[in-house]
Write a structure and sequence with these properties.
The complex is a heterotrimer of chains A (about 425), B (about 350) and C (about 525). With about 425 residues, chain A is an alpha/beta fold. Helix content of chain A is about 30%, strand content about 25%. Chain A has 2 domains: about 230 residues, no CATH class; about 150 residues, GMP Synthetase, Chain A, domain 3, CATH 3.30.300. In chain A, the strands form 2 sheets. In chain A, strands 1, 2, 3, 4, 5, 6, 7, 8 and 9 form a 9-stranded mixed beta sheet that branches. In chain A, strands 10, 11, 12, 13 and 14 form a 5-stranded mixed beta sheet that branches. In chain A, a hairpin with a 7-residue loop joins strand 10 and strand 11. The longest helix of chain A is centred in the last third of the chain and has 29 residues. Chain B has a two-stranded antiparallel sheet with strand order 1-2. In chain B, helix 1 packs across helix 11 and helix 4 runs antiparallel to helix 11. Chain C has about 525 residues and is an alpha+beta fold. Chain C folds into 3 domains: about 150 residues, no CATH class; about 120 residues, no CATH class; about 170 residues, no CATH class. In chain C, the strands form 3 sheets. Chain C has a 5-stranded antiparallel beta sheet, with helices on both faces. In chain C, a hairpin with a 5-residue loop joins strand 9 and strand 10. The longest helix of chain C has about 40 residues. In chain C, about 40% of the residues are buried. The chains are: A alpha/beta (about 425), B mainly alpha (about 350), C alpha+beta (about 525).
Chain lengths: ~425, ~350, ~525
């Protein structure tokens, strides 16, 4: 028996060696792509830009600062995989997409539809399913050129941290490739992507609106803006999709309603007009402890959606002195926040109706109301969503544990 | 093979692992395609059906304690039936092994070894399977007891990491593609519980047959329901239809912070081991039947040949698509008979014959 | 028997001139023959058997024994160097030479045994071969004319080492004594710890010439009879020329030769032997060997150190907790490293991947070669520093590890990360105290490296699969090798990984099926409940 085992082992090993499996790839023989940019091509369909990390300069011994930590490679191709093959012929190492952090599409391409450009990434086993999808207002190549890390020597980590900024800023969202893909396929909700643009660090700052903390320039001059030498990428909001086609954009504060309605709001700063002086602002931190209650009823193919959202607010600063020990002051502030949130949510919903896309996913609520898929599919949610009527209630609770509860006048009048 | 019995714990763990293998490969995809959002409901329904069925089987089996299905076949139809039956079962398990190895190999190749050929991966599977064959039923069943808890922990991790993605709304509409489809056509999917029929072959080896069977039914149905629940709540309905090797797809989404991402390779590790246990147990069951049917003294000597036959036939199966269809056929059209009707009829006949004999004696 | 009388009668004058007599007839020099009444005859045979006088350390002293004023020619035969000369001079020769009155009226043999030999262990032997065997272990043999027996007096004074501190199984707490090469001293050491009349040392001589004494120790009212029986059966059936050390015996009685993991525990600490005897195991001691074997042994026994039992509960938990990951690291880390780096790059966090890639950039070899170079270098250094004389050992270690390591990295032959991996693996393997298990891990490490290099995690999973099967089907003297865990037994909760405080260790390991299952009553600390009453 032992003899048979031995013979078997040897035979198998021999067969195996003869078969010549050669899948192992040496780590240093690969070129790691950390971001992919896809633009509309001139001659061919696509212009694909790979941002490739240079590990030696990132963490190699004796690396001097100032050396490039990543390089860009642009190829023309008709498909994404074609671009990978093309790129492989142009550089010495094999392209590996496993460390890719971000896929950037230009707005131009997104508006024409990303059908066929998303699928290759979903089926590719190398790509991380949590890769972010970014729609860029300039060309993707320009956008990638602007990625020159400020606080980080490592461009991959820089991207990682940048893309997770949604967890504390409240002005943008995190979109993962899988979510995007699932939403594309779903009939009851629509995908979104991160909207970004390169921000100019030149002194033409005046033109940008000053009231948003995270956001940069306004949308108006975005398309004409040329990329300055020392610019950095900025995530400015949400690109709303209908299917795989981009149909609209939501900027800065317009993102907050989306976060509230999809229950993805992490504590974010929120500005409201001061209760005493309209010209000044009071800042609160808003958060949501419970899922918003959303009820959907269909009446003669007109969806009636009732939204009740409970928002918790914590006071950060006030524009004018106020005493928050008084119930009335508190009530006033709460009302103020409520008003603004209501308007924001309403505007947001109107906008989505205008875009004819349900990026919030109200349609999902239809599903429990039917027994079988057959019955459900009689309703074309995309058709009837623009007719939707909303009933919005926002309850604002001022957190009891606020630090600032009483502010006194310190300036002499 | 020694005199030691298989403990209940060993049986339960290993049978659950064997059930997990088809769940890994294609069951969720098929289930989602057929029953839509009702895939979980369907699996719960199947669990209940199988549980009731096994209660009946156990009741019928009572007078034959210590006998396996071959002995019962001998009681009913003498030696010829025993041999015919074992050949049929052996062919069936052979086919199962071939298709599983082929399909799992394809999946593994797809996710890990893009540059290798199928044959290379199948060789690895064959080597592992042959080794397990040598260690005999006890070795494999004990292996199961390590692996199953590890996989349970793995599932725990998946739940923990993916809990934010779980959306119960994905389970609705409750009846999916319709009540008749789920409850009537769904019955044919009972082949997923095929592993339980191994119980009837290893009956004399199990320490507490009844307890082991019932716990195995519970455990296997939990495995199926839980994995389908995870899949169906996380991957929305139409997307799940396209996912072959869907649980692997799920593990790709796991991430703990920025540092621990793409842990799918670690999980693949478990899935491969599961597949090995599946192949190993089926191979050993084959040998138990061969030994009994043909009175072989040293069936272990056949292991290299049998493994090679399986390996070769594996390479003869042309492609994933064809094998998929064939597997569906095995599971959907053939297995209800092998799992449900066949033992039931056999046991009923045996019961009648025994009672008849008693009447004659008395 | 008849042939004996063909010899010439004894002639004391020419005894010392006798060269080795020519072999006349085979059967004359049959070792199994009985001792005769003729001293001359006996001496001739003994001289032949013991190769006298070619053999320089065989001494034959002839003299006359005086009993009742009558002279009996006598001879004393012994090996110089194995015996205590004082003992022979004062209590044997002096006693025999001076006249003794046989007052009791018993015969000569009885008289000599009862009145003359002032010696605590005297036996009589009637056959030559047994007599010779006993001479060889340091007894002296007395032949007296007219008596057809040989008197065997215990005059052993074997050259021994004194008991010293245990060097290979060190511990900061607990006894430090270790076994020496003398069997009696070793049994004495064990009995010192096990003061129990039920502790039995059963002697089974091993070797074709029955030269090596082997002692099987067990506590008769605890150890399971079938285990004791199995040990006896295996040892008594061994038919080899000689055995020098317990290590050879281990190889002769173990269950599986080709299995990498050790199946028998070997220790040099008498307290460890005592502990295991109390659990119901069997210890095997061999004359001339400073180690004892303990059977049956299960895998977790090899992970234990002496300290575990003697340190406080929280500390021993900590000590054990880190030993198991260390064991895993020492077996699997290089294999997993090579699997991840060559097959599953996507699993590595980006930052780590970049730093590995950066250091690998200048290394000319493929990863497998790089890893093998480093592992081989490490093994060679380890082997070399073990064999070098003590004063040079540390120097070699420093040269080997520090300078070579530094140089090999700066010459870009291997990457620094790999040095870390190999060093970590090496250090982890030292955390596994048992020498045999340590070697096991070193072998398996190479297996896993190759498996990882062939097919990544797939290969490693095959390795683990086979490994787990090998371990779970192995038995040591009938006890499953992975015992408290597989098959699961209740002693899982009182030993090993899930250690419990000493007052809760109520049961002996059930997998040993001891005769007494309880070690101590449910309440071992009576003071806890008696406190209120007093």
């Amino acid at each position: 028996m032992a003899k048979i085992v031995r013979t078997l082992i040897i035979a198998c090993c021999l067969i195996y060696l003869l078969a010549g499996c050669y899948d192992p790839r040496e780590l240093d023989d690969l070129a790691y792509v950390i971001a992919i940019g896809i633009d509309k091509g001139d001659e061919k369909d696509l212009k694909v830009t790979f941002q490739i990390a240079i590990p030696v300069n990132i963490s190699g011994e004796g690396s001097s600062t100032g050396q490039e930590t990543s390089t860009l490679l642009t190829v023309d191709s008709n498909s994404v995989y074609g671009a990978v093959s093309q790129a492989n012929t142009e550089i010495s190492k094999e392209i590996n997409l496993s460390q890719n952090k971000m896929i950037v599409f230009s707005e131009e391409l997104a508006k024409e539809g990303l059908e066929g450009y998303i699928n290759p990434f979903v089926t590719n086993k190398e790509i991380r399913p949590r890769t972010s999808i970014v729609i860029c207002k300039s060309t993707a190549k320009e956008f990638l050129t602007t990625i020159t890390p400020i606080l980080e020597p490592n461009p991959a980590r820089y991207l990682d941290l940048m893309l997770s900024s949604h967890s504390y800023s409240g002005f943008n969202v995190g979109t993962e490739l899988v979510d995007f893909y699932w939403n594309v396929q779903s009939k009851y909700t629509q995908p979104i992507a991160i909207l970004a643009k390169p921000k100019e660090n030149s002194k033409k700052q005046d033109s940008s609106s000053g009231n948003s903390g995270g956001g940069g320039g306004g949308p108006a001059d975005a398309e004409e803006s040329t990329v300055a030498e020392n610019s950095t990428p900025v995530f400015i909001g949400i690109a709303a999709f209908s299917g795989t086609t981009m149909v609209g954009e939501l900027l800065d504060e317009e993102v907050i309603p989306h976060l509230i309605l999809t229950n993805t709001l992490s504590p974010a700063n929120f500005e409201v007009p001061d209760i005493n002086d309209e010209t000044k602002t009071t800042t609160v931190t808003i958060s949501q402890k419970k899922r918003p209650q959303i009820e959907l009823t269909l009446e003669n193919d007109i969806p009636k959606i009732k939204i009740v959202s409970n928002v918790y607010a914590q006071l950060l600063t006030t524009g004018t002195p106020a005493n928050f020990f008084e119930a009335e002051t508190r009530y006033k502030l709460a009302k103020e926040i409520e008003e603004k949130l209501k308007t924001l949510i309403n505007d947001y919903l109107e906008k989505t109706k205008e875009f004819k896309t349900d990026i919030t996913g109200f349609g999902k609520l239809l599903k429990p109301q039917y027994w079988t898929i057959e019955e459900l599919e009689k309703i074309d949610w995309h058709e009837i969503y623009p007719n939707a009527e909303f009933d919005i209630t926002v309850n604002v609770n001022l957190d009891a544990s606020q630090i600032v509860s009483y502010t006194e006048e310190t300036e002499a009048k | 093979m020694g005199r030691e019995h298989l403990s209940t714990w060993e049986v339960v763990c290993t049978l659950s692992l064997i059930t997990l293998t088809p769940v890994l490969i294609s069951f969720p995809q098929y289930s989602s395609r057929e029953f839509g959002n009702a895939a979980v409901l369907h699996s719960v329904y199947l669990a209940i059906v199988v549980f009731i069925f096994y209660l009946i089987i156990l009741k019928l089996y009572e007078p034959f304690a210590g006998k396996d299905i071959m002995d019962i076949a001998e009681i009913v139809g003498g030696k010829p039936l025993k041999i015919i039956m074992s050949i049929a079962v052996i062919l069936y398990t052979f086919a199962m092994m071939i298709f599983t190895m082929q399909e799992f190999g394809e999946d593994i190749k797809d996710v890990m070894f893009n540059h290798s050929t199928n044959a290379e991966i199948n060789i690895l599977f064959t080597i592992g399977m042959a080794f397990l064959g040598y260690f005999g039923i006890r070795g494999v069943f004990r292996l199961g007891t390590y692996l199953f808890p590890a996989i349970v922990i793995g599932f725990g991790l998946m739940f923990y990491s993916l809990s934010s993605k779980i959306d119960f709304i994905n389970l609705t509409p409750v009846l999916g593609t319709g009540a008749s489809t789920v409850f009537l056509k769904g019955l044919t999917q009972v082949g997923i519980y095929n592993s339980l029929s191994i119980m009837l072959v290893i009956a004399p080896l199990a320490k507490h047959f009844k307890k082991a069977t019932l716990f195995s039914v519970l455990s296997t149905s939990l495995v199926i329901i839980l994995s389908l629940f995870l899949l169906a709540t996380i991957i929305p309905y139409p997307s799940l239809n396209q996912k072959n090797f869907a649980i692997f797809e799920l593990t790709r989404y796991i991430g703990f912070g920025r540092f621990f991402q793409r842990l799918d390779a670690v999980f693949t590790f478990f899935w491969i081991m599961t597949c090995f246990v599946f192949l190993g147990v089926l191979l050993i069951v084959n040998f138990i039947m061969l030994k009994k049917a043909f009175n072989l003294k040293y069936p272990g000597r056949l292991i290299p040949c049998v493994s090679l036959i399986i390996f070769t036939s594996c390479n003869l199966v042309p492609s994933n698509a064809v094998s998929s269809i064939a597997r569906d056929f095995m599971y959907v059209s053939l297995s209800p008979y092998s799992l449900f009707l066949y033992p039931l009829i056999l046991l009923l006949l045996a019961r009648l014959k025994v009672s008849g004999r008693k009447k004659q004696d008395g | 028997m008849k042939n004996i009388f063909k010899f010439t009668p004894p002639n004391p004058t020419n005894v010392f001139k006798i060269k080795r007599p020519k072999l006349q007839r085979e059967d004359l020099f049959d070792k199994s023959a009985n001792i005769t009444k003729s001293l001359e005859d006996n001496l001739k045979r003994m001289q032949y058997f013991l190769h006298y006088p070619d053999n320089s350390d065989v001494k034959i002293r002839t003299f006359d024994t005086r009993i009742d004023n009558e002279n009996y020619p006598s001879a004393l035969i012994f090996y110089d160097g194995l015996v205590d000369s004082d003992l022979i001079n004062n209590y044997i020769l002096r006693q025999l030479m001076k006249n003794t009155e046989n007052t009791s009226g018993s015969d000569l043999k009885e008289c000599i045994l009862d009145n003359v030999l002032a010696q605590n262990q005297v036996e009589t032997e009637e056959v030559f071969d047994k007599t010779i065997d006993k001479t060889l272990i340091g007894n002296c043999v007395l032949f007296i004319d007219t008596l057809d027996v040989a008197f065997i007096c215990d005059t052993k004074k074997l050259p021994v080492r004194s008991i010293s501190k245990s060097e290979n199984e060190m511990s900061t707490r607990g006894p430090c004594e270790s076994f020496v090469e003398s069997l009696r001293q070793n049994t004495g050491l064990v009995r010192k710890y096990v003061k129990d009349e039920n502790l039995i040392f059963e002697d089974i001589p091993i070797g074709r010439n029955a030269q090596t004494a082997c002692s099987i120790a067990y506590i008769s009212n605890i150890a399971n009879d079938s285990i004791v029986g199995e040990v006896k059966r295996r040892i008594s059936s061994i038919d080899v020329d000689y055995i020098l050390d317990v290590g050879q015996l281990e190889q002769l009685i173990e269950d599986k030769t080709y299995m990498t993991s050790p199946l028998i525990l070997s220790t040099e600490r008498p307290d460890k032997v005592a502990e295991h005897l109390f659990e119901g195991r069997v210890a095997i001691l061999l004359a001339g060997s400073p180690n004892a074997l303990i059977v049956p042994a299960v895998l977790v026994d090899f992970m234990h150190t002496a300290e575990d039992a003697y340190t406080r509960f929280p500390y021993s938990i900590l000590l054990r907790f880190f030993r198991f990951p260390a064991a895993l690291i020492s077996v699997l880390l290089p294999g997993i490293y090579i699997a991840i780096v060559t097959f599953h790059q996507e699993m590595l966090p980006t930052d780590l991947l970049f730093s590995i890639a950066a250091t690998r950039e200048k290394v000319p070899f493929p990863l497998l070669v790089e890893l093998l170079i480093m592992e081989m270098a490490f093994e060679i250094i380890r082997e070399a520093s073990l064999r070098t004389p003590t004063p040079m050992g540390p120097t070699l270690g420093i040269v080997g590890t520090l300078i070579l390591g530094q140089a090999i990295v700066s010459a870009n032959v291997v990457s620094p990360i790999l040095v870390i991996i190999v060093a970590l693996t090496g250090i982890s393997s030292f955390a596994v105290a048992n020498f045999s298990l340590n070697l096991t891990f070193r072998i398996l490490r190479f297996v896993y490296i190759f498996l990882g290099a062939i097919a990544g995690f797939f290969g490693i999973s095959i390795g683990l699969l086979v490994h787990a099967c090998v371990l779970s089907t192995a038995t040591s003297f009938g006890v499953p090798y992975l015992s408290p865990y597989m098959p699961l037994s209740s002693s899982f909760f009182s030993t090993d990984l899930s250690n419990v405080p000493i007052w809760k260790q109520e049961e002996r390991p059930t997998f040993l099926k001891p005769k007494k299952e309880r070690r101590q009553p449910r309440i071992a600390r009576k003071w806890v409940i008696n406190r209120r009453q007093s």
